[in-house]
Structure formats: C-alpha cells, structure tokens
Design brief:
Number of strands: 29
Structural class: alpha+beta
Strand content: 35-45%
Number of helices: 13
Helix content: 25-40%
Radius of gyration: 45 Å
Amino acid sequence: MSAFVYLHPRFFRLYRYVWTPSTLIGCLRLLPLLFLFHAGAVSAAAISVTVDRESVPINESFTLIFSAEETPDADPDFTPLEKDFHILGQSQSSQISLINGRFSRRTEWHVSVMARQEGTLTVPSIAFGSDRSKPLTIHVSGSPTPGVGASGEDLFLEVEAEPKNPYVQAQVIYTVRVLSRVHFGGANLSEPSSDDALIQKLGDDRRYTTYRNGLQYTAIERKYAVFPQKSGTLLLEPLTLEARRTSAGQSLFNQFFNHSARILRAHSDSITLDVRPIPTAFSGEHWLPAEHLEIEDSWSQDDLKTTAGEPITRTITVRADGTTVGLLPELAPKAAGQSSADIKRYPDQPLLNEQKLATGVLSVRQEKIALIPSRSGSYRLPPIEIPWWNTKTDRMEIARLPERILTVLPGAETEETAPAAVAKNDPQPSTAATQPASAEVPPTEGGTWFWLTLLFGLGWLGTAAAWWLSRKPRKLEIPQPADDPRSERAALNALRQACQKNDPSEARQALLDWARQRQPSAPPIGLEELKSRCGRDLRREIDRLNQALYRHPASDWQGQTLWAAFRSDPMVVSDKDKPAITVDLEPLYKL
C-alpha cells in the first residue's frame, strides 16, 4: 500500500484538491445559474416600444424606438406601421456594457415616421420572427401653429399663378416660395405636373429675406412657365416639401447619425386656372398667343443687289416672349408669296431656340433662304405678316416685314454674248464699218470654194473623231430623272422606317422628299405648304409632327398614327403629266 501511495503522489494530491467540501459547495451554487441561462435561451425576448417625445404633432416626424435585451428570433417586419404612419427611414444600433463584472447587450431599432392623420393612433404589435413587441397608443395633435405662416410657422410654402384666366397655349407664371425660420437640409420639393399643360422651369432659384406678419423669413423662390393645352378648368395640385431640421453649423456626419433630427413637411395650396379658348376676334391662320413678338430680316449684301446667276442669302428672324417655339410659323412659304418664277429659292433648316429666363420663355425662330435670280432686273419680294394675339393688351396684332426690292445686274456671260446677238440679227451689216477702206473684197467664186472646202474638212474631222471614240470602252449611264418612280418608292420606304423608329426629324424629311417626287414642277417648301395639299387626317398628323419637332422638352412622338393617316389619305394633288404610282404600302408593324 505504501508503495502505491509513493508511486502516485500527484494523483493523490489532485484528488484531495478537487473533492474538498468547499469545492463541492461552489459547484452546487453554480447549478441555479446554469438553469437560469438555459431558461433564458429558450424563453421569448422582451421587446419594448417608446416614442422620442411626448407631444407628437401632425406634419412633423418622430421616432419609434424598439429595444430588446436579448437577441430576437428574426429581423423585424415594420409593414403594419404603414396603415397609420408614413415610414421615412429606419436604422439599427447595439450597445454592449460591462458593469461590476456583469455583461449586458441592448439592441435598438429606430423607425422615423410621420402620422397620416390627427387623433389617437395605435402602434401595432411588430413581429420579430416568433417574438413580438407590445402595442403602443399615441395621441397626434394638430399643427402647433395653425395657419400657413400667418401665426409664425417655422416652415411653409407659398404658391401663386399669374394670370388666373389665361388663353389656351398662353404662358402662365407659376411661382413657388419656401419660407423658413429654421435651418434644414436634405430638402425634397415636388414638381408641378399636369396632363393638360406643358410645364417648364424658369431660370435659377432665388434666395432672399422677407417678412410675414412682422416675422423675418428666409425665402427660396422658384418659377415655372405653364402652357395650358386645352380650354376649361386646369387644376394645379398642391406641392409637398420634406426637409430634415438641423442646427446651425451641424456637419453632414452628425446629421446622418443623429436619430433625433426631425423631418418637417409642408404642403402648398392648390391653384385652379380658368383657361379661355381662342377668341373669335383672332382672324389669323395659326393661333399664336404671346406677350411680345417682332420680326426682322438681314441680307448677305446690304444694298440688296446681286448678279444674275449669283446667290444672295436672306435671313429672317422671329422673336417672341411668352410662347413656345413650336407655335412660331414657318417663314419660307410666307417669304415666297406670289414672287417671280425667275428667282429660285433654297431654304435652309430653321434654327430653333428657347431661353428659360426668369421673366418667362423667349422663343426664337431663324430661317435662311438662298435666292438665285436667273435674269437681270428688279424683283419685288412681298411683305411678310404674322398675326398674333397680345396677351398683355388682350387684342390681335400683326407683326409685319415690309416688301423688299431686289436689284439683279446682268451677268458677265450675258454682256459678252449681247453684241454677237445684235450682229446676228442685223439684216444688212455695214461693210464700211466692219472693214478697212483698203481691204479688197474677195470675188464671189473664191468665197464659194472657200466655204465648200471648209465644209468637207469639218466632215472629215468629224468622221475621224467618231471612229476614234468608237474604239474606247464606253460606260453606260442610265439617267435618273427627277420623277423616277423608284425615287418615290425610296421616299415611301424612308417614311415607313422613320415612323417605325418614332423619329420625327426623319419623318419630316421623308414626307418632303416624297412630295417633291410627286410634284416636281411645284414642290412644297415646308410642312405647312404640304399640309394644305393633304386630307384632313393627314393634316392633323402633320400638326402633331410639328409639335413633336419643336416642343421643348421633346415629347414622345408615335409614328404609327402618321403612317396610318398617310396610307388611308395621302396627298391628293399630283402633276398631270406624271402617272400615279400604285404601290401596295406595307403595314407599319408586321404581325
């Protein structure tokens, strides 16, 4: 036995250390803690809900705080909150602490919301997997300062429109002001919109200081141009502003992580416009409302003189305040009028421009026309008149460009050939005037032999030249007349492809090319002249094509309606000396 004890002294000492009475008592004390730990792992996590403030006003955000000491079963689902609240944002944070040797962990979910209505609302129970939060009842009061800025509200919107009873397609200035007495950031202001109006933003925003009921406000002003597209009642819906209230000098870093920052919301009033139709007093062909309109022209040569066969360029410019560039008429047809056929006209593509100024839209249309006279003389260019409606004076006016007289001098070739023509028409030219006195007139027989010899020599030279040319390989050139039917078919295919691609520019060019092939003797200068030769449906689609070409911002144009109108009712006028082409038009979209 002693040998055994001697061989295992460490084992004996370890045995004595582990199983001492004090060690057994300590182990017994740990058993309740182990039991509590196991019970906590299988029990549900307690989730509490609080609000970051006691008073919850309408149109101002507040934060719901969901907190749990233990880890919930799953991530939360805040969808039930959307019934009575706008969810503006959410975040999650965790806190770990060690106090007096005690380890604790707390998880919080911050949900920024805004009440949809006043009164007593209930925050429903939110599911965290199998765990759930408890419901919470809150009271939402009205605005702390009733009225729109009248009683000292910190942030509100002002809107106004002028005039309130515009004409159709006339300009209305819509002004929005954001007035604030607090610092805010991350602002989001909704844009005005309407299906029955064209709305464009004007200039840059203005910032200034103003007063309302003796209180000082910082104002941010933004303006829009509204063009009603049909008569009747036009409703401009209220605008909404959302902004995060901040402190002066607060950095973006602090704003991002500051959960107590409040989101402010403001609503504007709605505005109703009474849009009047085109007045009966307007007798122009095309309706054109504007605040101011003027027309002018300039020439490549100031003295309005040119030479026969030499081009001279005329530039015509129209400027209008308070209207869109799409309403300005084409100028080339008006410039042509009933002028002489001895002047060929070649109009260039018009230059269109719209400037969004603080006072409204300024539209400019400029057209360049190259004139090439074929004969000398003085030519009268008819005046150009544009009827328009002055929206300031509420009456019709006519912008007029007076007639011009173009002086065409004889060309160099004409001056050289004129004496020869006179000599040829002279029945008895004077011998004394054409020959010196000492010259001898050859006898009649010598003159006859001279002309016969010259005639046979020229015949021999012509025969030799024909033989030499017959030995050279010849390239067969097939002339393509201007009225070649295949050219017309090419224009038809180009129009169909442009309509398929919904490309208004290519459709315009294809229409004009097709019309020039159909009427080579009197081709239309532009779409306005082409429209006068078409049926009612095609005229309506050409008007829509013009609006798509010149409307800013550009609108979505669908070419299938133009192609359908073209197939059912193409241009009815054609040249008498040109047979009509019967071509089965392909459908725009093949099924």
